[in-house]
Specification:
Layout lengths: L1 E6 L12 H8 L4 E6 L12 E2 L9 E2 L1 H11 L6 E11 L2 H8 L3 E6 L4 E2 L9 E4 L8 H13 L9 H5 L18 E2 L2 E2 L9 H19 L11 H12 L1
Parallel strand pairs: 1-2, 1-6, 4-7, 5-6, 5-8
Antiparallel strand pairs: 3-4, 9-10
Length: 240
Amino acid sequence: MRIDILTIFPEMFRGPFDASIIQRAREKGIVSIHIHDIRDYTTDRHHTVDDYPYGGGAGMVMKPEPIFEAVEKIKADPDAKVVLLSPRGKVFNQETARRLAGEEHLVFLCGHYKDIDERNRSLVDLDISLGDYILSGGEPAALVVIDAIVRLLPGAISDPESANCDSFETGLLDHPHYTRPEEYRGMRVPEVLRSGNHAQIKQWRRQQALKLTQRHRPDLLDKADLSDQDAAFLKEANNK
């Protein structure tokens, strides 16, 4: 996969891509990441990327010209998808991460100030938001989205099953996890996890995932693929 990032703060990306899963994926040639300073696509000597909004009001707006120039130059591949990070976008989730992980070329456009010029949205294929809050710019959101995508690329994680069992992959939150020691400060690992009975362990994990989802994210249950056994367990849990 090729990822291009358009930003007016390229320095924000220098550290995160040189560590952990993304670094290993880059070293393996699974993903290549290219960062572009939008100021390099300006034509005035001050490298101006923003201006006052028509109609008045607070804040500044990103100018259309450098963004058009940057996207049109970078997007030589007609199949490349341009992703804008902005509060107006569809809230990002694991399903979207999976879909984007299937693309060959993604171009991330990081907005800043009040917004980009509305005419720039004609370049955008997908508008993404992280949630109902405001960040200083699209850069932190791009980091989150790219991390979620890269870890899903084949070979990025040494154990693919680990990614397949993450929260939201099954429509539920993940079950609790334990490691050694068996007891710590009076808190013991559940006996079922030490039993060696794989069927019971699988059932326990499923039930714990259901309980945690019901407690913390009940909205997910409306869309989850629940079996009759799952529904019966939740009904019984509610009656306790």
